[in-house]
Amino acid sequence: MEGAHRPYPGVMLPLSSYGDLERPPLRPAALRRGLVREGSLWREVRVVERTRSSNADLVVAARAGAPEGAVLVAEWQTAGRGRLDRVWTAPPRAGLTFSLVLRPVDVPSAALSWLPLLVGVSVASATARLTDLQLGVKWPNDVLAGDRKLSGVLAERVDTPDGVAVVVGVGLNVTTRADELPTPAATSLALEGATATDRDPLLRACLREMADWYGRWRGAGGDAAACGLRAEYVRACTTLGRMVRVEVPTGGAVEGLARDIDSAGHLVVGTDRGDVVLGAGDVVHVR
Known about the structure:
Radius of gyration: 18 Å
Number of helices: 5
CATH topology of the largest domain: BirA Bifunctional Protein, domain 2
Number of domains: 2
Structural class: alpha+beta
Number of strands: 14
Strand content: 25-35%
Order of helices and strands: HEHEEEEHEEEEHHEEEEE
Strand order of the largest sheet: 1-2-5-9-8-7-6
Distance between the termini: 50 Å
Mean pLDDT: 92
CATH class of the largest domain: Alpha Beta
């Protein structure tokens, strides 16, 4: 499918020399050999030195015909986007910042809410396996080490001439130092004492885990319970069973006990007024 769509706008810069020996660049050719093969979900893997936002670039590319399984990895994002339109930055090569195109055209629209949860739990599982860390997922898709944020996920639905696409972006702190963290509530693999901080195997492991769960979920028609995704997410979710305050996009907050994840991936919070089902919001774990 190479050449079937316009290049990602303004991002294809040559990889330059680097001065920080603790943060070597990714190896694009090796990544492609390990991920792009017959029968794989991943169709192309591109690594660029710098871009404002890999998600924004892939949204444009998806509308122009980028295939399912296109992956864009940025060594440095200067204006990365998080949930609720938050902007964030990270030092070059200190983490993994990448986006991917999915085209689940045969899955009901109502089931698409599971995609960011699928990606979040995949990142947590793959990263824990390689680093010997105990990791969990805070609803909906933040990866935590203890109560500190290690990774975030942003999913964006894109309507294209070829049907619906979903662009999912991931930011994972790998060698980020304490003075480089955006907030005291964040952390990195290095700060948590991970046994592995080589970004190449981490990226391959995360993408392979995503491909595995995506194949099961899509094969089940988007039914997260039938394919085992809901059970896996509930097992990994550190929000469940805790008192929480959820700040909702429309304003205000819901406080209560995080009781369950429903069939749509929504959080069920038990309050004094009964259960409240939330499809979006910022969760604060109340101590």
